[in-house]
């Protein structure tokens, strides 16, 4: 069972905010989800699970690209034909 303090710690590690007024509800939901995993752990499976392999990707089909003008249309400050972005260090 996960405590509210552990939820605070996990949310800090995940860099998400769980508001104090939702902490109790979130903790209950978290514990319910973990309970479902406990149920799955009790299943006994005989033999090997086999699944048919299916390629879910479509074939590549060449299409026309955007023109440079269209690609830069929503850019706030294009520079020399490129999208200008802030420096990231």
Descriptive overview:
This protein has helices at 4-13, 23-41, 68-71. The protein is mainly alpha-helical. It is flat and about 60 Å long.
Q: What proportion of the residues is helical, as a percent range?
A: 25-40%
Count of DSSP E strands?
Answer: 0
Oligomer type: single chain
Radius of gyration: 25 Å
Q: For the terminal residues, how far apart are their CA atoms?
A: 40 Å
DSSP summary: helix tally: 3
- Would you identify the regions where 5 or more consecutive residues have pLDDT less than 50? none
Mean pLDDT: 90
Structural class: mainly alpha
Shape: flat
Q: Sheet with the most strands?
A: none
How much of the sequence lies in strands comes to under 5%
List SSEs in N-to-C order: HHH
Salient structural properties:
mainly alpha
Could you give the topology of this structure?
Blueprint: H1 4-13, H2 23-41, H3 68-71
Characterize this entry briefly.
The protein is mainly α and 89 residues long. The protein contains three helices and no strands. 37% of the residues lie in helices and 0% in strands.
């Amino acid at each position: 069972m996960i405590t509210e303090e552990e939820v605070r710690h996990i949310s800090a590690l995940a860099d998400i905010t769980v508001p104090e007024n939702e902490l109790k509800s979130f903790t209950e939901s978290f514990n319910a989800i973990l309970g479902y995993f406990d149920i799955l752990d009790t299943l006994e499976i005989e033999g090997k699970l086999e699944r048919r392999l299916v390629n879910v990707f479509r074939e590549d089909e060449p299409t026309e690209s955007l023109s440079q003008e269209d690609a830069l249309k929503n850019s706030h400050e294009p520079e020399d034909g490129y999208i200008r972005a802030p420096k990231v260090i």
